[in-house]
Design brief:
The protein is α/β, with parallel strands linked by helices. It has helices at 42-57, 77-91, 101-106, 119-136, 153-162, 187-200, 216-226, 257-261, 264-282, 291-303, 313-316, 440-444, 451-461, 470-489, 506-513, and strands at residues 32-37, 65-71, 109-113, 142-146, 175-179, 206-208, 240-248, 317-320, 322-323, 325-327, 330-332, 350-355, 367-372, 379-386, 405-411, 415-423, 431-439, 498-499. Strands 8-12-13-7-14-15-16-17 form an eight-stranded mixed sheet, sandwiched between helices. The chain has a six-stranded parallel sheet with strand order 3-2-1-4-5-6. It has a two-stranded parallel ribbon with strand order 9-18.
């Protein structure tokens, strides 16, 4: 089907293909306007506008909607539309935008230029939104999306309130705010930002984005655990030996050296994405799928993570920084030679941590988390390794009886695989490990929607399940603070300590070797 009005690029063909049964359109019913602060930024170009366009193509946007871009750059409405068209043409998963649908969509786009702390610009925004409500029928419902540099998050919230755009100022309709990561740069700044936000918004109106939670295989973790009877009975210290969570990237810091120098891998990836994955694997079964029941359990398990003391940082963590090397056969520079990076930088581009969770389910089961840039492969997974069999009766001399491993594959492959032992065909009882694989693409016959599509749609719908509640953000900062402080106070003497394109630093291997274990290969 051509991408015309009402076309469903994602859902097309459900009747003809039994694999697609149960996939259905999920149109948002409330009319609304979404305001993107930071509309001239990279995230808007690569992710947010293509996501909005695909929500329209999938018939998911409400029939009455408006999109307002707000940022410092000077653009007319038409220039903004042209810019957004090229972003869609370049980055949309459905290919270049086509008329007549694009023209109809573009007619709902408009732009306000202004500083994030300029009261006049916010007054202008308010008048514009009121006019939009009349013109587009958006009924006073507003979603403010903060995709700006994090230092201005608090200012925008203050200005919204001062301009009478806060939820309490509204005579009708709803107001919600979506806040990009990072929510703070440490525990204190996160608490300060939270204090600013709660002056204006209630927790239920705040949607803190962690785009990993919108990835289809990440949502599947809960389905795997709580929609099947076979995993949960063995999901504890009696059967599980350890959990390894990896988020490996091949990209370097690209043009983000300025931001990354003050962030590092622990803040950029572990504090949010990777810790959130750990929470999904480790939490207790929620009593319902409601946003608060799920988030109660996530917070509970994060509160049970054993604090890493200053003395333990050396034993429980490892850090690295990439040197020059090669990625997919192409030479790439060292981190210290990247734009806007200090030539003696102490910033880690690789972090790994061993966490223990002090509760009955997990006592003594290590959770090993790692994330790094410029590694050998872009690959994210959660691997749950089970204990050894208690008594061996099969296998000829020399056969290794591997432990069972359940792998939740997040990207680029999406699915689940189970490694178990089987008999090698032949007269002898030789044993070898084999893999049973489920792959999302072939299992359901659809390509998963990018995380931002799912998350923006959920925020417009008022479903906060896949967004991080403040208590979990605070716990995650509490968990990483001792490591951040220790690393800051003790510059790594061995940076750069891993070649681009490798498995990461030797210290990460040593951390697991000290426990008699090995990392899975990236
Ligand atoms: C972002 C980080 O949150 O996640 C980036 O700031 C990182 O540094 C990105 O590259 C990784 O996301 P994904 O979806 O490509 O794994």
């Amino acid at each position: 089907m051509a991408a015309g009005v009402g076309a469903r690029v994602v859902l097309d063909g459900a009747a003809a293909n039994p694999l697609r049964q149960g996939l259905d359109s999920n149109r948002i019913t409330d009319p609304c306007t979404i305001v993107f602060f930071g509309a001239s930024g990279d995230l808007m170009t690569r992710m947010l506008m293509p996501a909005m366009w695909n929500l329209r193509l999938g018939d998911i946007l409400p029939t009455k909607f408006g999109i307002v871009g707000f940022s410092r750059s000077e653009f007319s409405d038409d220039e903004f539309r042209t810019d957004m068209k090229s972003s869609v043409d370049q980055f949309s998963r459905s290919g270049p935008a086509k008329d007549p649908l694009w023209s109809e969509f573009a007619g709902r786009l408009s732009y306000i230029s202004g500083d994030f702390d300029d009261p006049k610009a916010f007054k202008k925004l308010r008048a514009h939104l009121d006019a939009n409500d009349k013109k587009l029928g958006t009924a006073g419902n507003r979603l403010f999306y903060l995709s700006t540099p994090p230092p201005v998050f608090g200012k925008i919230v203050q200005q919204l309130s001062a301009a009478g755009l806060g939820p309490k100022d509204q005579a009708h309709g709803w107001t919600r705010i979506v806040i990009e990561k990072p929510f703070g740069t440490d525990l204190d700044s996160a608490r300060a930002l939270q204090a600013e936000v709660t002056k204006v918004f209630d927790e239920k109106q705040v949607y803190r984005i962690d785009h990993y939670l919108g990835k289809e295989p990440v949502q599947d973790i809960m389905a795997l655990r709580f929609a099947n009877v076979i995993f949960e009975p063995i999901w504890d210290r009696r059967y599980i030996d350890c959990v390894q969570i990896t988020a490996a990237e091949t990209v370097g810091v690209e043009q983000r050296g300025g931001y990354y120098e003050n962030a590092g891998a622990l803040r950029d990836m572990i504090q949010n994405h990777v810790i959130n994955l750990m929470a999904l694997v480790a939490m207790e079964p929620p009593i319902s799928p409601s946003a608060d029941h799920i988030r109660d359990e996530k917070h509970k398990v994060l509160s049970a993570v054993r604090p890493i003391t200053a003395d333990d940082v050396r034993k429980m963590t490892a850090r690295g920084q990439y040197d020059a090397g090669s990625i997919e056969g192409k030479p790439v520079p060292a981190y210290r030679a990247e734009p806007n990076v200090d030539s003696h930088s102490n910033t880690e581009t690789f972090a790994c941590v061993k966490f223990l969770i002090d509760n009955w389910r997990w006592a003594d089961v290590p959770f090993y988390l790692r994330s790094g840039k410029r590694l050998g492969r872009k690959y994210s997974e959660i691997a749950v390794t089970f204990r050894q069999i208690p008594h061996r009766i099969f296998g000829e001399a020399g056969d290794a009886i591997e432990t069972n491993t359940l792998v939740m594959k997040i990207q680029p492959e999406e699915g689940v695989s189970l490694r178990f032992n089987a008999k090698i065909p032949g007269p002898k009882m030789h044993i070898r490990s084999v893999t049973m694989d489920f792959n999302y693409g072939t299992g359901f016959g659809v390509v998963s929607a990018p995380a931002y599509e799912r998350l923006i749609g959920d925020a417009m719908r008022g479903d906060a399940t896949l967004f991080t509640r403040w208590d979990a953000v605070e716990s995650a900062w509490e968990i990483v603070m001792p490591i951040l402080q220790n690393w800051k106070g003790t510059p790594a003497g061995d940076f750069p300590n891993y070649a681009a394109g490798s498995q990461g630093p030797a210290s990460a291997e040593a951390l697991l070797a000290a426990d008699g274990r090995e990392w899975r290969r990236i």
